[in-house]
Amino acid sequence: MAIDKDLVVRTALRMLDREGLERLSLRRIAAELDVKAPALYWHFESKRALLDHMADAVLTPALPDLEDPGDAARWPDWLAHTADLIRSRLLAHPDGAQLALGADLTRATALLRIVERTVEVLHHAGFGLADASRAAASFLWFVVGRTVEEQTLPDPASMRRQARANPSILSRAMAERTAPDDQDVSFRFGVRIMVAGMRALIEEERAVG
């Protein structure tokens, strides 16, 4: 059977959806494709390389929606939209966020384009170029890392039951988070904190300048 990179990536994503990342291996993908494992090493030097290409396939559909905000003052809305978009693409697959964790941007080129566009937007918003790249990295670390955590948490109902059984202030706080869409609310709250911090830094930079 002739195989190419796209076929291997599509197969790997189907297996990810079916069985999760822990059970995904080049050997098992080769068995699914009815080829010997060494055949895959013509296309992927390691499992990490395969994960990078999988991350690229997952995030590429988001790119058309990341248009330039036009008005530089609309950067907070653009960041919030981008955060939601990346998260939704990663949540579309079990363990999807872990694909992007530590990805090599020379292979995960969709993620590279997202990083570049974020740097561009933040630079136009008022950050110096170096700080725009730092802010973009922090923002994307939050989005990916928070989504990884979301995909590994116990179900919300179980967390609330545990919180009600424990009298600590953190548990009482968790017990009050009863909205069925609490993960969405919490994620967007975190993005608001990121945006507020960036806005304060931009204003501080302008005041100094």
UniProtKB/TrEMBL annotation:
InterPro entries found in the cross-reference section: Homeodomain-like_sf, HTH-type_TetR-like_transc_reg, HTH_TetR, Repressor_TetR_C, Tet_transcr_reg_TetR, Tet_transcr_reg_TetR-rel_C_sf
Entries under Gene3D superfamilies matching the protein: Homeodomain-like (1.10.10.60), Tetracycline Repressor, domain 2 (1.10.357.10)
Keyword presence, Transcription: yes
Keywords: DNA-binding, Repressor, Transcription, Transcription regulation
Annotated DNA-binding residue span(s): 25-44
Domain HTH tetR-type: 2-62
Family matches, as PANTHER family: HTH-TYPE TRANSCRIPTIONAL REGULATOR RUTR, TRANSCRIPTIONAL REGULATORY PROTEIN
Identification of the protein by name: TetR/AcrR family transcriptional regulator C-terminal domain-containing protein
Source species of the chain: Rugosimonospora acidiphila
